[in-house]
Design brief:
Radius of gyration: 14 Å
Helix content: 40-55%
Mean pLDDT: 82
Low-confidence stretches: none
Number of domains: 1
Shape: globular
Number of helices: 5
Number of strands: 2
Strand order of the largest sheet: 1-2
């Protein structure tokens, strides 16, 4: 599968060192400013695509709707939100 460009990950931890700290959302915003509004990161063993622009997110979700609709939701998310989900747009 073709992923967006991303940072070179370190063994075992991936790109966690790039976003850890008190304000991970600010770290992600800085990465978006420096590289692109859509980047791929490795968080440990998990590859994650980060979309930092509502326009990019809307475009990707509209064009790739079938790919996203078939994805399962991890049990940890169900437990965290007690099976209640919302989508928020700016």
């Amino acid at each position: 599968k073709k992923l967006p460009l991303g940072l070179i990950p370190l063994p075992l931890i991936g790109n966690l060192h790039n976003i850890l700290g008190d304000q991970p959302h600010q770290s992600l915003a800085k990465l978006a400013e420096r590289y692109s509004p859509i980047i791929s990161l490795r968080l440990g063993r998990i590859t994650t695509v980060v979309m930092s622009s509502s326009a990019v997110a809307k475009d990707v979700l509209q064009k790739q709707d079938l790919a996203f609709s078939s994805r399962t939701i991890p049990d940890a998310i169900h437990d965290l939100y007690h099976n209640q989900f919302t989508v928020e747009c700016p």
